[in-house]
Amino acid sequence: MITVNLTENFFTLFGLPECYEIDFVALAERFRKLQHTVHPDKFANATDLDRRLSVQQSARINEAYQTLKNPLLRARYMLELKGFDMADDTDSAMDSEFLMEQMQLRERLEQIKYSADPINQLNIVNHEIDAALNELITKITDLFNLANKDALRVVYDYVRRMQFMMKLRQEIQMLDEEYS
Amino acid sequence: MALLQISEPGEATAPHQYRLAVGIDLGTTNSLVATVRNGKAETLPDNNGQAILPSVVQYLGDNKLVVGEAAKNAAVDDPYNTIGSVKRLMGRSMADIKKLSGAIKYDFVDTESNVPRIKTRGGAVSAVEVSAAILTQLKRRAEQALGDELSGVVITVPAYFDDAQRQASKDAAKLAGLKVLRLLNEPTAAAVAYGLDNKAEGIHVVYDLGGGTFDISILRLNRGVFEVMATAGNSALGGDDFDQVIAQWIMQQAGIADNSNQSLIRYVSQQACAAKEVLSQSEQVEIVLDGAMGLSWHGVLSRSKLNELLDPLIKKTLIPCRRALRDAEVTQAEIEDVIMVGGSTRMLRVRERVAEFFQCEPLVAIDPDKVVAIGAAVQAHTLVGNKSDDEILLLDVIPLSLGIETMGGLVEKVIYRNTTIPAAKAQDFTTFKDGQTAMSIHVLQGERELVSDNRSLARFELRGIPPMVAGAARIRVTFQVDADGLLSVTAREQTSGVESSVQVKPSYGLEDAEIAQMLTDSLSHAAQDVAARNLCEQKVAAERVVLALQSALKADGDRLLSAAERKNLDAGLRHLQEVAQGNDHAAIKLATERLNESSTEFAARRMNDSIRSAMAGHNVDEFSE
Fold first, then answer.
1. Is B483 close to A40, i.e. CB distance below 8 A?
2. Of the candidates A36, A49, A55, which has its C-beta nearest B603's C-beta?
3. For residue B486, what is the nearest residue in chain A, using CA coordinates?
4. Over residues B31-43, mean pLDDT
5. Is residue A122 part of a domain?
6. Which part of chain B has CATH 3.30.420.40?
7. Cβ distance B437 to B463 under 8 Å?
8. Which of A85-94's residues contact partners 24+ apart within 8 Å by CB, and which partners?
9. SS3 A164
10. What's the CA gap between B156 and B180, in Å, rounded?
C-alpha cells in the first residue's frame, strides 16, 4: 500500500540515481512535470484539504529541486543520507594551508577598492573562486564514488571549504554592487 | 451563456458550467478588470467605454461614495475626503507612512486598532476599505458585462510586496466579496500576457514602473513553465515620483511655496502629469497655470530639461535591475527581451535608458497600462478550470527573506529571498536559560542583519516547554509560504510535542474580527441576516467536500483504499449529506471537519499516486517497493 511519504529521498522523488554527479536536464524536466501535477494552481477550486496537501507537496518538491541543483546543498544532503554526522565533526580543524589562502584572498578583496579598475579586479577573483569550486566538485564526485567512511570525512572537509568560498563569492557580489 | 464543457481526463465526469473569472490589476493610480471572452483576453470598459478606472475614492458621507474618474476630478476641490494612491498605504503602519517618500497628506486618526485610518466625511477609513471600494466597483462592472456572478478573481500585486501588503490586498478582496484564486505578481502577469502570442522560450525581463512602485523581474519560460528567477524593486518609487519632480520644478519656476494649500499642489501635479504626456510626443511643452487658482504663470519645459529631471529617478530603477540580474545569475547578453509595464514606461527617456542598460529594444506591443490585467485574466481563466490543456504553470519566488529574531537583536534567516514558492523550511532553535519554559518568536521579513532594520511581521509565544538546562530543548520552527506568498509559522518543542502556530497576521494588519465586522457593516450584506449567510456558506462548503470526495472515491477508491477504509469513508460521506440537509450550522461544520479529517490519508495517497504516475516511465524500477 502506498502511504504518505514526506520523508522520501529527494533522489527517489525525481527518479534519479543517488549520485553526486547529476543529470541537470532530467532533474529540471522532472521538476516541471511534478510541479505540473501538484502545484496549488492545479487545486484553485479544490477543497481546503487538497489545497493544504498540494502546498505541502509543492513546497517539498521545490526544496528537493533546490537541494539537488546546488552543489553545496547536494553534498550536505548526501552526507546526511549516508549517515555522516556533521554536527559531530564541526570541531575538527581545517587545513591551515587552506585557511591561509582564504585570508590572502580576503586581503586582496580589501585592497581592491584602491585599485584603478575595481570591477575588473573583482571579476578576476571571482573567476579564481569559480575554478577552485569546480575543482572541489570534481574531487567530491570521486570521493562519493569511493563510498567509504574516511572518504566521507574528506568530503565534509571539502564541503566546508566550499562554504567558505561561496560566502566569499557573495561578498564579492555585494562589493560589485557597491562599486557599480 | 453556458458553453459546452469537456472535462479533464480523470476529473469529475459531470460537465461543469463555464465559470466566470476575471483578472484585476489593482493599481496605485489606475485599476482595471479583464476577462477571457471567446478565447480572447480583453479589458472590460465602463458604460462610457473607459477601461481604466482611476484608483480614487471620494467619500461623500451618509454611506455614499464615488469611485474613479469623478472622484479623481473632485480631488482638487475636496482633497481630504478624496483618497488616491492608497496602494502605497496597504499593509503599512503609521510609522511606515511617515517615512514614505512624497507627500501623503491625509488626516489620520488615532484608533485603538494598529491600522492607520484616514479621517473622511464618511468616517475613518483604512487602506483596505478604500481598496475594497475600488474592487467592488470593478466587480460590479464585470458582473454587468458578463451577466452573472464571478466564480473567482486573480488579483495582481507588485512582486516586491511583503507579507503584510499581500495580506492587506487579500483582505480587501474578501471585503469586496471576491473569491481570490491567486495573488499574482504583476510582472508575472505581464509575461503571461505576452506569452500568449509568442511562446518564446528563454529569459525575459519585466520592467514595471507603476504609479507608486517599481518592480524588476527576471523570468525563464521553458516548456510551459514560467519560473521567476529573481525579483527586486522599490516599493516606494513610481510614476507619482516622476510627476512630483516635474511638479516641483514648475513650483520652483512659478515661485509657488512648498507649503501651499493642498488644492493648489494637486492642481500643479495634474499640470505636471499632462506636460509629461505631451513630452512623449513633442520636443517641448508650454505650461500655463491659469487664474482660477489665483495664479498666472506660464513657462516652457523642454525634453532635454525633462530628461535631466528624470535621469536620477531612472537611475534609481537600474540599481534593483542590477541586483536582480545578479540574483538570477544571468548577464545582459542572455536576455531575450524586456517587457515594459506601467504607464510611466511610455516616457521615451525611460525606454531609452532601459534599452541601453539591457542592450535590447523593449517590448511595447501590448498597452503598458493594460498588460497586467490581461495577463491576470488569462491566469484566472486557467485557474477557474475553463482551460485544462496547454496551460502555463507559474512558479513565483518570495521577494524578501523571512527569518526570526535571535539573541542580541539579530535576524536568523529561515527562507531566503528568491526561493521558489510554495516553500517550507524548518529550523531548530534552543533555550537560552536553564529552566526556561516559554519562548517568544518574532517573525521578520527583510534582508538586513538587525531586527530593527527589518519589517516585523508577527510575534507569538510557545509556552509549556518542560524545564531543561539551557540549550537542551529542541524547538523546531517551521515556516510555510503558500503560492500567494503568504506565510504561516509553527513552533514545536521536539521532546515534549508542545506546539504553537500562527497564520501570520501583521501587527498593523486588520484583525479577523475587524474584517468580519466590516463585512457585516458593508452595504452589500446589511440586508442579509448574518446567520443565514453563515449557514448558506457552510452548506456550500459541505457540498464541495461531498462532491470532491465522491469523485475521488469513484476514481481511486477501489485502488487506494482497503474495504474497511472505504466503508468508513462512505459512512462519513452519508452522514455529512444527511446533516447538510438540516439547518444546524454547527453540526454541518463539525461533520465537514470530521469527514475532512478521516479522508486526509486518502487525499494524501491520491496526491502521492499522482506524483508517481507523473514520474512513470522514468526509471520505473526506482519506484517499486
1. yes
2. A49
3. A55
4. 93
5. yes
6. 21-238+311-387
7. yes
8. A86/A156, A89/A153, A89/A156, A92/A157, A94/A157, A94/A160, A94/A161
9. helix
10. 10
CATH of domain B527-615: 1.20.1270.10
Task: Please give the tally of structural domains in chain A.
Answer: 2
A149 found inside a domain = yes
Establish if A154 belongs to a structural domain.
Answer: yes
Chain A hits for B598, Cβ within 8 Å: none
- At A101-153, the pLDDT tens digits run 888 888 888 888 788 888 788 888 888 888 999 999 999 999 998 878 888 88
B87 closest CA partner among B248, B244, B210: B210
> B398-524, superfamily in CATH?
Substrate Binding Domain Of DNAk; Chain A, domain 1 (2.60.34.10)
Task: Write the DSSP string, A6-29.
Answer: TT--HHHHTT--S-SS--HHHHHH
**Percent of chain A, pLDDT > 90?**
36
| Chain A residues whose beta carbon lies within 8 Å of the beta carbon of residue B618 | 15, 26, 30
Q: Each residue of B53-107: pLDDT tens digit?
A: 999 999 998 888 999 999 998 888 888 899 988 888 898 888 777 776 555 678 8
Contact between B222 and A49 using a beta-carbon 8 Å cutoff: no
Q: A55: domain CATH number?
A: 1.10.287.110
Q: Which residues of B185-199 are buried (b: 16+ CB within 10 A; e: fewer)?
A: bbbbbbbbbbbbeee
Domain limits, CATH 1.20.1270.10, in chain B: 527-615
Grid coordinates belonging to B558? 477501489
Residues in chain B with CB shorter than 8 Å from the CB of A15 are: 615, 618-619, 622-623
Q: Above pLDDT 70, what percent of chain A?
A: 91
**A16 compared with B270, residue with greater pLDDT:** A16
What superfamily in CATH does domain B21-238+311-387 come from? ATPase, nucleotide binding domain (3.30.420.40)
What residues of B are annotated to the active site?
A: 25, 87, 186, 208
Chains A, B: CB pairs < 8 Å: 136
Q: What is the CATH number of the domain that holds A151?
A: 1.20.1280
Among chain A residues, the shortest Cα distance to B483 is held by A40
Query: Quick check: B560 and A180 CB within 8 A?
Result: no
Highest mean pLDDT: which range of A13-22, B266-275, B379-388: A13-22
Cell 516641483 found at: B248
Residues of A in contact with B384 (CB under 8 A): 44-45
Min CA distance, B528 vs chain A (Å)? Answer: 26
Chain B closest-CA separation from residue A97 CA (Å): 31
Share the mean pLDDT of chain B: 84
Asked if B421's CB is within 8 angstroms of A59's CB, the reply is yes
Domain that holds residue A45: 10-69
Asked if B425 lies within 8 A of A177 by C-beta distance, the reply is no
* Residue at A18 is within a domain: yes
Judgement on whether residues A47 and A120 belong to the same structural domain of the protein: no
